[in-house]
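Quick one: co-fold with cytidine-5'-diphosphate.
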Amino acid sequence: MTAALRARIDRRCAAGPFVIAIDGPAASGKGTIARRIAAALNLDHLDTGALYRAVGAAVLEAGGDPADEETAVAAARAIDAARLDPATLRTDAIGEAASKVAAIPAVRAALLAYQKSFAAAPPGGRGAVIDGRDIATVIAPEAPVKIFVTADPAIRAHRRYLELKDSRLGLTEAAVLADLEARDRRDSGRSVAPLRQAADARLLDTSRLDIDAAVAAALAIVEAVLD
Ligand code: CDP
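Sure, here it is.
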């Protein structure tokens, strides 16, 4: 990354919070890209999937049904969004529960204010990279940079399989692909804030990119948008 890009980002941040919105389906690479470009540009990072995962995890822990509105909304109202540990929430069972609670409009409503205020006033005072499913469409539609990260389903399933295989004996890549496709269908088909590429978002297909190349491609998009 060039010093010139950093200097331009610094100027943009001085003029008001600078937001980069990153959306995409499961295991597309959006989370790692978001974390890495936030570090490179000295911006805050918000992983909004962790909010839905925290709600899903809380419901599972209490022995509840993630699709039950009353239970899921109570869990969404009770989480402390500023104090989550995303690393503890990355199991496939929690991902599945997250996508069920995320389809409930009142759960999304309960998590909206925190995300909107993070975008409007990032804690570090400069700007934020926010990743999820509805960032460019709902949370920060005014963000100057919007990136939709995607990859072929089979490649995403392979990546997720490698991530999960040590913690799940007997897991197969075919099972991971089936889960991922079911989750994509639920995320894209729900009535509120479905997963979709915003009209003005740039598409970044990571199917043939390793993570360093994907991060470089995302930074190139940021640079191109600022030109
Ligand atoms: O890492 P991965 O892409 O598998 O999932 P995640 O980003 O941690 O999100 C978990 C689930 O939360 C997704 O399947 C969505 O159903 C939901 N989610 C959402 O609805 N809206 C967001 N902004 C972020 C996540």
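If it helps, The pocket of cytidine-5'-diphosphate is lined by residues 26-27, 31, 48-49, 52-53, 95, 98-99, 102, 132-134, 183, 187 (CB under 6 Å).
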